[in-house]
Amino acid sequence: MLTWLTAAQRQSTSRIPKPLRLAIRRLSGGESWTAQVVRGWLWRYRYFVLLALGANLAAAVFEGSTLGVLTLALELLAGTFQPGESAGQSLFSDLIAGWQQRWGVGGAFFLLLGIAAAMQIARSGLDFSAQVASAYLRAWLEGELRRQIFRQFVSLHYPAISRYRTGDLVSYTEQVANVGRLITTTNYLLSHLLIVVAYAVVLFWLSWQMTLGALVVLLLLSIALRGIMARVRQISRQLLEASVQFNTQVVEFLQGLRLIHSFARQEHAIRQVDQIVDRSIRAQRRGMIWAASILPVMQVLMVLGVVIFLAIGYQMVQRVGVGMVPRLITFVFVLYRLLPRVSGVNNGLAQINGEWPFVERVAEILRTDDKEYVHSGELPFQRLEEGIRFDGVTLTYPGSTRPAVHNLSFTIPRGSMVAFVGTSGAGKSTLVNLLLRLYDPDTGHIWVDGKDLKRLRLTDWRERIGVVDQDTFVFSTTIAENIRFGRLDADDGAVRRAAQMAQAHEFIAQLPAGYETEVGDRGYRLSGGQRQRLAIARAVIREPEILIFDEATSALDSRSERLIQSAMGELRQDRTLVVIAHRLSTVVDADQIYVLQDGRVVEQGTHPSLLAAGGLYASLWRIQAGSAPAYP
């Protein structure tokens, strides 16, 4: 039921009496996914929840008891205290009468004042305890949520997570703060609500007639506020949508700043963001107006309530006499203290309604029953013994109707260098996605030493592969740490050897801080070729069984390309090389070259044999050699 609870924790919830479980479930939103997740959060941190609840409850009891003690003190002072007749018809009645006989009215009065002061001090301490418990609960929950959300992101199957936009993913982690505010607001609401209940008990004790008049006013207030709360939640959802869209658009534009400046599209980007901000402003303005309407509605109805209870109080004084005055004074004082608390309850409800759509969104990303996760096989993998064979493999990307590759069949023998070439969109990079199991074939099989790739333990398989992507990603850290990402336990010597093999050591040594040079966000301080050689070093340091170069030399100059080709010659001696290439000069020494077109293998052979065949490969070679018109 809940991703947040272990089996033992779920079993412990079964010890709660069924009627209480049903009541909690009903009060917390029923069986909706968000309600289940919120209950899971509360149960996981139940000791802090119970501490906050207990402290708030005890504080409310002390608050109500303080007012009762003050009422008895006023009755003593006014001479209207009647043991056995007043509201002190309890064990306190005889106790107060004994104090009065021993120390007189003044002594008993000051003793009651001291008790009231001690109760208020205790109430303040309990309030502080509840806030501390709420603060601990919020801090741990927000931290755990951020961990869970990031773990969810990296655990999802690559096709599933790639459908999200970066800004959208970032917004999930930002909205964890809304969940934290919900905890604080709930504690605030609970504190005010329990004290309202305590005040209601005191008011009923003082005069049930006037209290009934106040309850009528509160009922009218509740009816009036229900529509306002629904409107606040609706507007909050609009604000959430605008917030998510804003984050998504801003992150995308920031990632494309170079393109924006190159095409002089600054004003276009500003207009796009302005439109989103305008929608956000309108939603926020409407939400604040509706929230602001709560106080005037309360004030009008409260004035009506004061008029009603004063009229009832006047009638009671006329009937009972001045002996009713101490209680009437206390009633006015309690009502005066009650009104801000009622306002606090309604403000808390408005805030919870405002935060709830954000909580729903965070809870939704944590669902496990509607998402696709990485499925690992059960067979261990240590090394490639024979080779890799594609057998009738077809893959169509989600959202596309045209297969990226169709009915592919070929073999990559162990220790060989196999290259895949072709025009853009031919399906070359799709082969890398399939080899890494970022995607699984729709039909057909990929066999590794005669075993289906899906059955191999995924972590074992990927640990034995080194990849150099055409879209080189560099972390915003030092050069050494970027290389060491390939093998986290690599020492400085291994880092240097990998850089030398990737022909990167020369330019690194010329940098002011050498291997400790910070490369900046996405490696902006390095050239494209330098970033690519850094990526090659990161792949080489893994000492991989299979080394995949996906357009690895596309950003290199001719000299660097020759150096990388030389490095490939060294690497192929004890590794299996898979080379995806646009520059055909990179693959002239390959053991086998497959030419792809429209997701299919249309030619295969060695460089000399393909040139002799005079087909697509030969045409591409002539284009790159400058001896033929561009390929259409």
Q: What this model shows, in words?
A:
The strands form 2 sheets. A 6-stranded mixed sheet has the order 6-7-8-3-9-10, sandwiched between helices. Strands 2-1-4-5 form a 4-stranded antiparallel sheet, covered by helices on one side. It is built from 22 helices and 10 strands. The two termini are 57 Å apart. The chain is α/β, with parallel strands linked by helices and 632 residues long. Helices cover 63% and strands 9% of the residues. Helix 4 runs antiparallel to helix 5 (91-155) and helix 9 packs antiparallel against helix 12. The chain is elongated. Helix 20 (558-571) links the parallel strand 7 (546-550) and strand 8. Among the domains are: 30-365, ABC transporter transmembrane region fold, CATH 1.20.1560; 474-544, P-loop containing nucleotide triphosphate hydrolases (Rossmann fold), CATH 3.40.50.300. The protein has helices at residues 7-13, 18-27, 33-44, 46-78, 91-155, 158-161, 166-174, 176-206, 208-255, 257-262, 266-292, 294-320, 325-365, 428-435, 458-463, 479-484, 492-501, 505-509, 528-540, 558-571, 607-613, 616-625; strands spanning 387-395, 405-413, 417-422, 443-448, 451-452, 465-468, 546-550, 576-581, 592-597, 600-605. Mean pLDDT is 79; it is low at 85-89 and 627-632.
Secondary structure elements and pairings:
Layout: H1 7-13, H2 18-27, H3 33-44, H4 46-78, H5 91-155, H6 158-161, H7 166-174, H8 176-206, H9 208-255, H10 257-262, H11 266-292, H12 294-320, H13 325-365, E1 387-395, E2 405-413, E3 417-422, H14 428-435, E4 443-448, E5 451-452, H15 458-463, E6 465-468, H16 479-484, H17 492-501, H18 505-509, H19 528-540, E7 546-550, H20 558-571, E8 576-581, E9 592-597, E10 600-605, H21 607-613, H22 616-625
Parallel strand pairs: 3-8, 3-9, 6-7, 7-8
Antiparallel strand pairs: 1-2, 1-4, 4-5, 9-10
Helix pairs in contact: 3-13, 4-5, 4-8, 4-13, 5-8, 7-9, 8-9, 8-13, 9-11, 9-12, 9-13, 12-13, 17-19, 21-22
